[in-house]
Automatic annotation (TrEMBL):
<dbReference type="InterPro" id="IPR044859">
    <property type="entry name" value="Allene_oxi_cyc_Dirigent"/>
</dbReference>
<comment type="subunit">
    <text>Homodimer.</text>
</comment>
<protein>
    <recommendedName>
        <fullName>Dirigent protein</fullName>
    </recommendedName>
</protein>
<dbReference type="GO" id="GO:0048046">
    <property type="term" value="C:apoplast"/>
</dbReference>
<feature type="signal peptide">
    <location>
        <begin position="1"/>
        <end position="22"/>
    </location>
</feature>
<keyword id="KW-0964">Secreted</keyword>
<keyword id="KW-0732">Signal</keyword>
<dbReference type="InterPro" id="IPR004265">
    <property type="entry name" value="Dirigent"/>
</dbReference>
<dbReference type="Pfam" id="PF03018">
    <property type="entry name" value="Dirigent"/>
</dbReference>
<keyword id="KW-0052">Apoplast</keyword>
<dbReference type="GO" id="GO:0009699">
    <property type="term" value="P:phenylpropanoid biosynthetic process"/>
</dbReference>
<comment type="similarity">
    <text>Belongs to the plant dirigent protein family.</text>
</comment>
<comment type="function">
    <text>Dirigent proteins impart stereoselectivity on the phenoxy radical-coupling reaction, yielding optically active lignans from two molecules of coniferyl alcohol in the biosynthesis of lignans, flavonolignans, and alkaloids and thus plays a central role in plant secondary metabolism.</text>
</comment>
Length: 200
């Protein structure tokens, strides 16, 4: 009987110590990524179409206080814009952008500044199915605007970098615009870890 009690006590102590040292994370080595970090340049054209029967951007929440700005302070816009290989609208589509604009300046007039966030999903070539996330300030009237790339999925896991946006053309009557984007991304070309991990 005493032996059974001693064995039970030992097992309880072992179980307690196991639970006390258990954790929800583990430390990994960057060498496990299996490939060197790469720098990739991507260029495409961001097609913003308001005049379409199904516009690619809509204002979801007009501000309560209006001014003479094209997009008054507090405006919220949702977008789903096509990405094309060339500036022409009928050019080959290579992906889409889904995201939002927030008008973030109280200055009246055309000094348009927005906080912009969107996910780029590619559907062509080696990056088919991969995504990049962009979030930053976009000063529309500047010739070239720079925004950070904050992450990605698929071929762009661990992505970081920046995007340069340059307006190619804009129709002030219709509101349509074409913007050239040049992206510079550090990322890893392979990632051997499984998508579903076992418990630690």
């Amino acid at each position: 009987m005493a032996n059974i009690q001693s064995f039970t006590s030992i097992m309880l102590i072992f179980l307690f110590l196991s639970l006390a040292t258990a954790n929800y994370y583990e430390t990994l080595s960057p060498q496990q990524l299996g490939s060197p970090e790469k720098l990739t340049h991507i260029r495409f054209y961001f097609q913003e179409l308001i005049s379409n029967q199904e516009p690619s951007i809509i204002i979801t929440d007009p501000p309560k206080v209006m001014n003479d700005a094209p997009l008054p302070f507090g405006s919220r816009v949702v977008l789903e814009n096509q990405l094309t290989l060339r500036p022409e609208l009928d050019s080959k589509r290579v992906g889409k952008a889904q995201g939002f604009y927030l008008s973030a300046t109280q200055k009246p007039g055309v000094e348009l500044e927005i906080v912009m966030g969107f996910v780029l999903t590619f559907n062509e070539g080696k990056f088919n199915g991969s995504t990049l996330s962009v979030l930053g300030r976009n000063h529309i009237v500047s010739e070239v605007r720079e925004m950070p790339i904050i992450g990605g999925t698929g071929a762009f896991r661990f992505a970081r970098g920046f995007a340069h946006a340059r307006t190619v053309r804009v129709d002030y009557t219709k509101g349509d615009a074409t913007i050239e984007y040049n992206l510079y991304i550090f990322h890893y070309s392979s990632f051997p870890f499984p998508s579903h991990h076992q418990g630690f």
